[in-house]
């Protein structure tokens, strides 16, 4: 090959000095001498967007990640300049843009302390292979800075010193530190000097993040194409960063039906119908609560989506109805690969309408998955999503299936080295045509989106329930998720714990793992410990490959069956608590699980804790993650906490030993908490009950708790038919007050609260309800007193000595 010796060899390129500046309402544009443009948009007082172009022109401003419902607007904005910088000031942030280099530094507007600054800052590299730029950003890593988030990465909660890629990948039997795996969520939070910020790099190409691995004082992120386009989100509380990110990328569009928060059982595969019925009947016979049974790919006719194998399931509508009569909702799998078969209606219609993805030079993208050779719908095209949503009419409206589980949507392709589509596959990208390099990471989310709209349409007036394996930022608007094909090992139990925490701090709380492990076979002890963890994840499902043996709760012997039943019953008792936490997530973006650092960032001892987490606002959980354990050491956050099993009160802010034989696990309740509990049911809606329990944990001082309720399905709650009860506790040495304030029009079926008081430091001498003295009529144990009151009480006042 003859090379032109005059050819310019380019490495990294950098912006030059600013030569012009203009302001258009909330957006400031800085143009450099070498045609680089930086657009700074003030989204909110605490959220600033940075968008760079190397050519002086920007692409169409389109994002699958940012929701149109995101909050926008600010209370204060001022722009000034000095000799060296342009200075943008909001009520929360001061952003300085250096005139010589476009380098950015960000400060707290209140105390003027540095939060984050560019190291080299924005730079890029010409990509001659694919065209366009490889865009890069480097930031200075501050002293003792820690990093969190980035979705489902199978590593400890703190990401400091590690490097990752975001490229959705089918990762069967992934291990600790495997990267990348199923999801691409390019968002992280950082904490330094008790100030927390977040960065959302909204770029769907393959992205990389280096958290001070290559250079210990530098954090960087880059993409193999597209724009350098990121949002800087300031707290300074980490929970506020996560809330603002979740607001930006979208909260769930609807509450899940309550049954979706119950216990679910799945296997690859339950078939024929007799096998399904055998499993569901055994749940009922053994009185292990369960709300959903799953059908994997073998329910289909030759793995053709939207079909049934009539040899295994001769009358699906009858079977689904009989299962529902016994309290089981049916959830079925749907994959993106559509079998090439001209006798298959779904394939023929998509072919006729030209809905399949194509290669750059014309032919359809062909790949092998479960049905054999397949074509794949282009879910980035609106009319394809609309068509796909319409395919669910028979499954949902006619047959009565209640949930759909989207798998293999990274997209996964068999027998090719990269496990997915070639780079040259073309996508519509909602009118912004592109290659698969740009569309890969959002393919699964757009499939889940189309599925969600199909279920929303045909399940109406009930709420949709969708699960996805692959996801990009914003997928939480439409779907729940699980962590993919894990393994039945103790290491994977710990990985599942970390992944669920990390997903919650990445804006995606409706998540869980395959309980017990998908690949290989757990021993009974591991299965029991995994159930104990899984009941505290928003999505709670046992799933296994079936290749290695059965994995139902009763296959490990009576001792394990009893332990599983005990903990699944705790799940069902705590459903009103979880439902309330979900309501907070949907309304405020509050994560349902909180790593200790998210719960109390001021305590630096929490910054590297990976095992413990807070469930909702007031329950502290620490799974046992090794065999033969009779307990473990765990960290208790600051404050006083009640041992769930014994009511012993412990002082936090330190590590301590907690006993936990196989039938137990470390669970603690925050003092002052009011924990609502339902009676045990075998499935949601099995019982009409007149009374629910409020477990009230004494605190000297004040604390408040909430209980959200509605019809548990349907959309009436959006019209005000919900109830939100706020309980305020005031504890004194010889006096205790529980006040209730209710808003909303919903009237639940129960009429009474059984208030169970834990650890009152005095003997009750008199009781007033709404300022009227009532006869002392109580029950309880040596550690508790119980008083039954009308649910509409406003104040319970206990006097003692």
UniProtKB/TrEMBL annotation:
PROSITE patterns: GLYCOSYL_HYDROL_F31_1 (PS00129). Keywords: Glycosidase, Hydrolase. One of its GO terms (molecular function) is hydrolase activity. Residues 691-759 form the DUF5110 domain. InterPro entries: DUF5110, Gal_mutarotase_sf_dom, GH, Glyco_hydro_31_AS, Glyco_hydro_31_C, Glyco_hydro_31_N_dom, Glyco_hydro_31_TIM, Glyco_hydro_b. Residues 38-210 form the Glycoside hydrolase family 31 N-terminal domain. Residues 254-581 form the Glycoside hydrolase family 31 TIM barrel domain. This is Glycoside hydrolase family 31 protein. The lineage of its organism: Bacteria, Pseudomonadati, Bacteroidota, Flavobacteriia, Flavobacteriales.
């Amino acid at each position: 090959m003859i090379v032109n010796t005059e050819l310019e060899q380019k490495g990294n390129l950098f912006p030059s000095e600013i030569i012009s500046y203009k302001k258009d309402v909330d957006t400031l544009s800085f143009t450099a001498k070498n045609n680089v443009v930086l657009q700074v948009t003030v989204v909110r007082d605490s959220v600033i967007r940075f968008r760079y172009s190397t050519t002086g022109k920007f692409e169409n401003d389109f994002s699958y990640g940012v929701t149109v419902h995101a909050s926008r607007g600010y209370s204060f904005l001022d722009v000034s300049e000095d000799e060296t910088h342009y200075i943008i000031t909001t009520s929360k942030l001061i952003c300085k843009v250096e005139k010589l280099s476009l380098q950015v530094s960000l400060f707290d507007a209140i105390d003027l302390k540095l939060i984050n600054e560019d190291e080299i800052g924005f730079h890029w590299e010409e990509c001659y292979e694919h065209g366009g730029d490889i865009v890069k950003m480097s930031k200075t890593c501050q002293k003792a800075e820690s990093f969190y988030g980035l979705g489902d990465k199978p590593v400890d909660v703190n990401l400091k010193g590690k490097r990752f890629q975001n490229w959705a990948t089918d990762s069967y039997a992934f291990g600790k530190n495997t990267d990348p795996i199923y999801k691409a969520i390019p968002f992280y939070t950082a904490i330094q000097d008790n100030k927390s910020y977040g960065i959302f790099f909204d770029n769907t190409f393959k992205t990389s993040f280096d958290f001070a691995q290559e250079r210990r004082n530098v954090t960087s992120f880059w993409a193999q194409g597209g724009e350098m386009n990121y949002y800087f989100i300031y707290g300074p509380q980490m929970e506020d960063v996560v809330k603002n990110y979740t607001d930006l990328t979208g909260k769930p569009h609807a509450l899940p039906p309550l049954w979706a928060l119950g216990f679910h059982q799945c296997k690859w595969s339950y078939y024929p119908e007799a096998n399904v019925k055998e499993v569901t009947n055994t749940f009922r016979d053994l009185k292990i609560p369960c709300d959903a049974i799953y059908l994997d790919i073998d329910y289909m006719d030759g793995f053709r989506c939207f079909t049934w194998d009539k040899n295994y399931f001769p009358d699906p509508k009858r079977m689904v109805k009989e299962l529902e009569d016994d309290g089981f909702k049916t959830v079925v799998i749907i994959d993106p690969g559509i079998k090439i078969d001209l006798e298959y209606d779904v394939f023929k219609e998509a072919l006729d309408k030209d809905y399949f993805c194509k290669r750059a030079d014309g032919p359809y993208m062909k790949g092998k998955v479960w049905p054999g050779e397949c074509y794949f719908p282009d879910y980035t095209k609106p009319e394809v999503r609309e068509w796909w949503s319409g395919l669910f009419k028979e499954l949902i409206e006619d047959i009565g299936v209640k949930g759909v589980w989207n798998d293999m949507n990274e997209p996964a392709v068999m027998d090719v080295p990269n496990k997915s589509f070639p780079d040259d596959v073309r996508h519509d990208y909602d009118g912004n045509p592109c290659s698969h390099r740009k569309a890969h990471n959002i393919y699964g989310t757009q499939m889940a989106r189309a599925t969600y709209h199909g279920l929303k349409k045909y399940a109406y007036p009930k709420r949709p329930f969708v699960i996805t394996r692959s996801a990009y930022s914003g997928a939480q608007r439409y779907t729940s998720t699980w962590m993919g094909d894990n393994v039945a090992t103790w290491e994977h139990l710990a990985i599942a714990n970390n992944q669920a925490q990390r997903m919650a701090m990445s804006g995606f709380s409706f998540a869980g793992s395959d309980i017990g492990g998908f690949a290989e076979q757990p021993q009974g002890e591991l299965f029991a410990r995994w159930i104990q963890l899984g009941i505290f994840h928003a999505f709670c499902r046992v799933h296994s490959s079936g290749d290695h043996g059965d994995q139902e709760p009763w296959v490990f012997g009576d001792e394990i069956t009893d332990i599983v039943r005990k903990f699944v019953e705790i799940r069902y008792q705590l459903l009103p608590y979880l439902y309330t936490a979900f309501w907070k997530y949907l309304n405020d973006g509050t994560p349902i699980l909180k790593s200790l650092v998210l719960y109390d960032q001021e305590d630096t001892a929490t910054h590297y804790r990976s095992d413990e987490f807070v469930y909702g606002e007031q329950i502290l959980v620490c799974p046992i993650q090794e065999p033969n354990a009779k307990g473990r050491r765990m960290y208790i956050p600051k404050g006083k906490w009640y041992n769930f099993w014994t009511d012993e009160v412990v002082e936090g802010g330190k590590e301590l030993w907690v006993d936990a034989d196989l039938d137990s696990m470390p669970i603690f309740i925050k003092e002052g908490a009011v924990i609502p509990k339902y009676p045990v049911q075998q499935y949601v809606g099995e019982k009409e009950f007149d009374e629910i329990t409020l477990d009230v944990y004494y605190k000297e001082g004040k604390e408040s708790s909430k209980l959200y309720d509605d019809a548990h399905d349907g959309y009436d709650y959006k019209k005000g038919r919900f109830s939100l009860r706020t309980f305020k506790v005031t504890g004194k040495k010889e006096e205790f007050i529980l006040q209730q304030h209710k808003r909303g029009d919903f009237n639940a079926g129960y009429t009474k609260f059984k208030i169970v008081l834990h650890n009152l430091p005095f003997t009750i001498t008199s009781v007033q309800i709404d300022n009227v003295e009532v006869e002392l009529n109580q029950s309880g144990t040596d550690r508790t007193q119980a008083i039954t009151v009308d649910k509409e009480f406003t104040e319970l006042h206990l006097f003692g000595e």
